[in-house]
Amino acid sequence: MRSHKEQRQQPTSYEGSRQRAAVKPQGYAGAPSSSSAQVAPSSREDHNDLLEKMLEGNNLRLAYKRVVQNGGAPGVDRVTVAELQAYLKTNWETVKTELQTGTYRPAPVKRVEIPKPGGGVRQLGIPTVMDRFLQQALLQILTPIFDGYFSWYSYGFRPGKRAHDAVFQAQSYIKSGLRWVVVLDLEKFFDRVNHDILMARVARKVSDKHVLKLIRAYLNAGVMVNGMEQETAEGTPQGGPLSPLLANILLDDLDKELTQRGLRFVRYADDCNIFVASKRAGDRVMASVIRFVEGKLKLKVNREKSAVDRPWNRKFLGFSFLPRKQATIRLAPKTISSFKEKVRALTKRTKSISMEQRIERLNCFLMGWLGYFRIASAKTHCGNLDQWIRRRLRMCLWKQWKRVRTRIRELRALGVPEWVALKMANSRRGAWEMSRNTNNALDTSYWEAEGLKSLLTRYLELC
User: What is the value of pTM for the model shown?
Assistant: First the structure.
């Protein structure tokens, strides 16, 4: 992670961005490592042999490794990641020939809907494992060609960049005095991408006709909904390895437009925040950017979710800021609400699961969540959430002690006085109310012995 001083020294021009990007470290979970990522060439004519590079042995082995690491559900053919190796042994020569002759046809993606934290659903497309493998191999070849030309202030799904970097950059803008933000929300971005506009931008740097045809085939692969195949005249399915890169290629025109206007912005995939000094400037920027996005890129801006507002009233990648000079990073209110929804699901008292398994799953979620949100000022939140989580577990445990005699036995074992154990065991109060009354018997040390990890302890260690 770069220091705040380094954040302030980032280039402000597009040419500076190219120079920095050409020497910045490469490699992340979904892209090639530094050994395979090269500095982006400047000539389109240099890329006539991309299919051969895509099908090169080392590239394919790396792609296979990435797909296996990422896992995921099977596509419409029901072939799992575990079965990919055997599937390749049987079908690879046929697939390779079809790729070389330009006759390969990707399978339709499986359409699934996942709930959004703020309500509604997000449509996710799951390609077959074979197509994920081919897309990953293609991604590893295309990334070094395009990434060096992307804006420094584009952070989503790029080698050497993280969501934390985007949040720190936004914080530096606010600290510099740009205390208004233009929040640009693109309505159903991945479903509305214009194929012709996108392919024209890909063709700026890619001349290999086989690769261009393959990318177009993935865009037109269609989706499978309730057993029925539907054509896709626009959009790029959100879920395949190639989709984030294609999104950055299309939105790079927006980045260049904002840079040419001298605007300060941070973009993470389709989440774009532009920082200005006044509301009047923000209203002017909002109107002009909407004209550009809808006129030149043929995308739709969601007027209801887009706004000109104070940064501390908005959420960016799960974070927000305090209205102070230092713009301290904090947890957004919706982030805490989403956290509690997940914990409630894991600690649902009617869920038939052992306490050991419940704590194991809970620990996995808690440590992963904190690993991402550790950069926020959240000491008090972590302490409060720890208390709440322990109460949820006490509720589950009381529910498991269904019978009066079981409760008496367990409370005695915990050292509760006899008369207190009898009174509590015969109480007609609900499990949630009793979870408060059993606080002393099932205290912090009890749950530590059971293996529950503390958010506060881990947060202090990371700080």
Answer: 0.83
